[in-house]
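Archive transcription. Copying these from loose printouts into the bound notebook so they stop getting lost. Printout 1 of 2:
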Amino acid sequence: MNKIKAEIIKYSKKLNIKKLSALRSGNISVRFKDGFLITPSGKKYSTLKNKDIVFVSLLGEFDKKKGVPSSEWKFHQDIYKNKIEAKAIVHAHSTNATAVSTHNKGIPSFHYMVAMAGGHDIKCAKYATFGTRELSKNILRALKGRKACLIANHGQIAFEESLSKAFELAEEVENISLQYITSLKLGKPKILSFKEMKKVLSKAKNYKKDN
């Protein structure tokens, strides 16, 4: 358990270092036994210690004496319950992904790397107050057939089979968001066809195995 907690702290600090989230915004979790370990509520990542990382069961139970989990633990719980393949989750308030999300729009297939999120586009979950079950439901809809999505007026979320891969995917989403914003400054970008994206998605399954 301590090794996993240390990994969560390492990547939480990287959220700040890589400028994916400032101070204490965003959150990270890793599936563990019959639940998950998650960053605590309201603590700066730079100050985190192993004892601060909180265990939450898939039933939503946690020991308040041992700490309070991130206020957004509910969507972590719901993703783990509904996505068997999810082993780690990274939620970030990264600048460019958040900027796109404030327009309540997803990212179309303007670039083939959109496929890294698992689909022919990146969806944007409808807005709901942070920490609510309504937000969880909106996120799950946007994650249908995908491993990452934007969250309207909020940020982005990504899950993967390991924390390192989930963090990398969050970085990809942020970079794609920046490229999309830049492309819009030049006018309406050309969108790759659904047929082409099907080919890309097929190739993408082996992309990370080869790199």
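Printout 2 of 2:
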Amino acid sequence: MSHMVDTMAYAGKTPWHGLGEKVDDNLTPQQMLKAAGLEWQVQKKPVYYMDNLKGYHKSDEWNVLVRSDTNKILGPCGKNYLPIQNDTVFDFFNKFVKSGDMKMDTAGSLDDGRHVWGLASIKDGFSVTKGDDVEGYLLISHPHQWGKALTIMFTNIRVVCNNTITAALNEFRMPHVQEFSEAVQFRAQEALGLAKSQLSGFKQQAQFLAKKRYTEAKLNEFIVRQFMPKNVNEVQQRELWNRTATTVHQLVHEQPGSKMSEGTWWSALNAVTYYADHVAGRDRNAALRSAWFGSKATMKRKALDLATEYAKAA
């Protein structure tokens, strides 16, 4: 693997990104933490600077974050930064897994440990059309980086092709200036209810899209607005399309599950999400980060908004 994916473990079937080491599908959060190689800690250490007249001095304002097992410097931080350890974050899943409300699915770290995540199934889902199932998951994004906050997100996965769309749960974010205490965890536990609520909302949205059909002209316009916004007035001039727009147009008809809702805005949406998760980029390691936390995640949310706009007008 390249430097982007550091370590990773997954339970059940191979995930959409095709990365990681397979483990049993009944692991506790702590067992998943260990299987994913996340038992290390992050230490905040002082920064020293050289004064040519007086020698080395300890900075009163700056520190560096160091990974305990490799001594890798993860980056700088201010004096008020509080490292939140991986095992503390995974303790969040304990209550839900023990009660049977969740099941650990995936865990790992990116970029030498600068970004750690845990993914758990909320054991709930729905069918868009017969055989076209969507399952709900809770994703904790935990960066060991100054200026980036711990975030809890909802993500859905379309089973037939493993496409994903993530969304923050009411923007639950916790900057590294407060401890991930029991009080904070209690507030975060509302995330399960919020995730189920978002799954219900997405169910209505997905089933609505699957009932609304596109015309070829509107499909072309949708693709151009998604990938070539400067050329909206040239939607019929297919020779002007870039490679991405052409590929997505093909995927509308060729993606896995395309026949399940052929000719609908649900199919158009999933052409974009399939492209983002499975086609875009040559490096699967980089694709994982981008699809959940970066530009491809933004691309998929934009596609959902655009497809819904066109479906409402259909």
